[in-house]
Structure formats: C-alpha cells, structure tokens
Fold these 2 entries.
Entry 1:
Amino acid sequence: MKIGIIICDRYRNCGGGKCLRAMRNRDGAFSRYSLDEPLELVGYSTCGGCPGGNVEHVPTEMVKNGAQAIHLATGLVVGYPPCPYMDYFRQYIEARYQIPVVIGTHPIPQKYYLVHRKLSSWDVLNRFDYLLADVQMREAYD
Ligand code: SF4
C-alpha cells in the first residue's frame, strides 16, 4: 500500500515523527492497514497555508508516485481551531483523483485531547474514533 500525507501548514516545520511512527506501528488512522502489508510513504507535503491551495496540485505528484490513498494529517484535526476545510479537501481529492482520502494519521496526543474536551471543537475530534484511541496510546503520542 502506498500513501501520501498532507499536513496542515501551521505545522510546516514538523519532522513527521509521529506520523511515521504511527505508520510503522499501524496506530491511529493506520490501524486500517495490516501489519503484514508493507506501507510506503510516496509523498509528504503541506496544504500550502490557509485556505489550502496546495491541495489542488500536490496529489498529482503523489498519484504519479503510486499513491493509493492520501491521509490528511492529524494536525488538521487537532489544530486550534481544527481545519475548517478538511471535509472539502477530502471531497475534492476523491472527486479529482479517484483515490480515497483518510482524515488523520497518528493518534490524537493527550495534551490536545484534554484541551479540546473543554472546547466546541470536541465535536470535530469526536468524529474520528480511530484517532482517539485510549489514554495510554494518546499519552504515547504526547
Ligand atoms: S487550517 Fe487547513 S487550510 Fe489552514 S493551514 Fe491548516 S490545513 Fe491548511
């Protein structure tokens, strides 16, 4: 399975450590893939900054590299506020490139979980049960 990852530009300096660890361990959004199945990252980029202009073009390169799915990184979900465009990004990429889009990568870190629980953004996080995991897993991704 080959995938591309698009991250929120607010985290443009992120080294990708949590996403890559989750990929390797099949945690969070990667739990949908079997550990027996090789998982290869064929593209990694940012959205380009609000309102996400790079989402229009960057999947082209990922698909040329063989991407069979694109993940929108967990940073889109846990940012303050969560990205208001993530559902549109998913619709757009799936319509234009005919490959599935998964919202999320690594489990939600506990520190974000605790703050969002106090905010209206909890409704957004609560949509993604595969990212919520359990407290031990969330703490492991703090
Ligand atoms: S909030 Fe959304 S559009 Fe804005 S930088 Fe992050 S991913 Fe891109």
Entry 2:
Amino acid sequence: MSASSASPAAPPRPGAFPQYPRTLDCVHCGLCIPDCPTHAVTGREADSPRGRIYLMRGWAEGQFELSEESHGHLDQCIVCRACEGVCPSGIRMGEMVESFRAATGPDRPAASPSRWGRWLFREILPHRGRIAALSDLLELYQRSGLRDLVGRALPRVSARLTRLHSMQPDVPLRAARRIETDRRHAAFPAEGERRARVALFLGCVGSEWFAPVHRATIRVLTRNGCEVVVPHAQTCCGALHRHAGVLGDAAKLLAKNRSVFAEAGVDAVIVNAAGCGASLKEPLAGVEEGPPSYQDVCEFLGELDIHPPERALPAKVAYDQPCHLLHGQGIGGDVVERLLRLVPELELVPLAGSERCCGAGGVYNLRHPEMAEPILAEKTAAIRESGAEIVVTGNPGCAMQIAYGLRGTEIEVLHPVEILARAYSDRH
Ligand code: SF4
Ligand code: SF4
C-alpha cells in the first residue's frame, strides 16, 4: 500500500509514539480486514487495520509525513476493536490509535478533538452539575415545541445539522433524571438477605439522559439482594477523551473515579454502559490500579445467579452486541442472552451480524456521518430482517444510534436490564 498523499523524508520519531514497537508485531496477514467496518464501507486498504498500522509505523519511522488525507484514514477508525479479536499477533488497535492521536493531535489544526471538543471534554463532561443544567435547557427546548419548529426549518439550512438535530434523544423529565437523594450519595437497600454491596456508575450525559436505565439497574440489583450506593462525587469515565487521544485528561478522570469508589467501600462498581465499562477497566499510564473492580451489569448479574423473573414478556427480542462489551471487555452474547432467556415467554431471535459495529463509536457518528450512515444501514436492515419487536443493547450510544436508524418503525430499543426490570415489576 502506498501512503496516499504522504510525502517522504521526515525525522524518525518512535519516541513520540509509545505504541510504535507494537506496530512491528503486525505480520500483514490481513485476517482483521473482513471484520473492519470502515474497510467494509470504502474497500480501501488505508481504511483497514493493517493499512492504519502501516501509516502509523511509517510516520513513526520517518518514512513519510502524513497528509491530512492520510490522517483522515486514522481519524476514521471507530476504535470498535473488532480487529483485536481476530489478530494472531495480539495487536491492540484501541490503545494504538489512541496513542497515535495523542502523539499527533497537538500539531494538527484539523485533528480530533477540535477546539470545541476540547472545551466539551474539559468544561462540560467532567462536571455533572453543568450537564444537569444543560439537560434542563434541552428539556425546555424539547418540550416547548421549539425543537419541532427548528426541526422543520433545518432541512433548508444544512443536511448535516438536520441529522445532528434529529439524533438528539428525548431527555427524561427533570424529576425522573435525578438518582441521588442528597449531595453525598444515594443508597438503595437490598431486598431480602444482602448478598453484595455495590456502587452504580452513572456516566456524564448518561447520568441525566439514561436515568431510566439506571433506575432499572437499581431495581434488578436490589431485587437480587444487592445494596446499591450511588456516590455523588463520581465523574465521567473518560472514554471520549481516550478515543480522541486526550490521555492526560482521561487519566485524571480515571484516578478521580477510582478514589471515589474506593472510598465507598463496595464489592464492585456496576457499569451499565459498555463504552464506559471498557474505559474504566482499561489501565492508563500514571493511574494506580486496584480495588474496587468495575463490572458490566450483565457480567455481574450472570455471576450472581439471579432470581428468575415471574412476569411474562411475550415478545420477539434480538440482542445486538456492543463492540465495547464484546471486544473491549470480552463479554460475549451468551452472557446477556442467558439472562434474557430467564424471562418467561420472551423469544430470542437471531440477529445476523450482531457482533458488527453499529457506527455509533462515542461521537463518531456525529463527526463522520458519511462513514457511520452505511454502517448503521447494514445494522438496521439486519434488525428488520430478524423480525424482532425489541432490540436489546447494553450501550447507550449504540441504543441512540440504533433508535435513530429505526425511526418510523415500531421496533423498541432497550437495555437488557430494562427487560429484566419489566419482568420483575409485578411485585411492586
Ligand atoms: S478498531 Fe474497528 S474501525 Fe478501527 S481498524 Fe479496528 S476494526 Fe477497523
Ligand atoms: S490480523 Fe493483526 S497481524 Fe494480521 S494484518 Fe491485521 S493487525 Fe496485522
């Protein structure tokens, strides 16, 4: 492969890119290529894992400078990590791309993240109070009728803005968004004999926008003998910072969460967003590792041996696997499907390509709609084909993306714990 538009002659700079030695492990076998969603869209080697490794290695060795076009191939990696699962050399594409973005980002005006992105990363995402205030404004915008007015006007202005605008999820009402009962933490007692004491991780915008999933998580955990605490001082997981190569900020957030949850004195920290879970579990340079451990909610419930729910949910359900659960945390579909099978009369239907990315990738779908759209189209076509009435996925970003792709259909998009909570709900 030639590095398109890359010019020769640059100083070698392996030291600037700590993951450089790992690029040498690639044996160019190409086994990863069929699993890469971006290569499936363009068919170009430069949009495949192997092509991207070639570009990163060549840049670090000073074989060539990368043009904006070549950088674009690296920016367009979703960091879905599908290639990691098949690579015989154990390439860790997530770490490699994030490290490369950290090494090259500051010198590139067009790099990820933009000035606005950095402002969002530093001034909004780590501050739950500011996210709550913005969510209040968004709620007002959505419920005052302004959203509908703007939605009707935008197609005359910009197709990109129309798409962005139509992707916004409905923000729950303010009263339903707040999980905590005081400024320090909330506590929800276990039903029956206590089997574990756990903390719930809320996330950044997830702490406000995905409150129904948090409530369902608390419901299922307490029903199964877990006391749940929700420390107020927790913060963003830093996944978006990592994807963009802003690793220093990501490390600070990881360290802050570790100290908050260690102080809570819990057996485990439960995470119901696959992207956050993968980020919280993944070590980062400069951040001490140690207890408590983070566990995805389905992983934890699977090990807990939960009570079978009593209430029947007669519906056809398909499970779509979030990349950051499957590839990022090594939690396969069997773990989630075993839980869903406990629900009486629920019929699990197979979903072709359930392991393939939906194109959400944090905010990838907003930054690269031209790539995310065809990836999503493949996903929604498979969901329609499956005959499912409900599609279940354990990552809020994927849920938003799939719900956007399924607009105009009757197919509901839910988190696995929302299904379980519904099936337990007749007891209260
Ligand atoms: S992480 Fe995903 S998008 Fe990036 S190279 Fe690997 S398979 Fe392709
Ligand atoms: S599977 Fe691994 S070793 Fe083979 S080309 Fe892809 S990244 Fe390189």
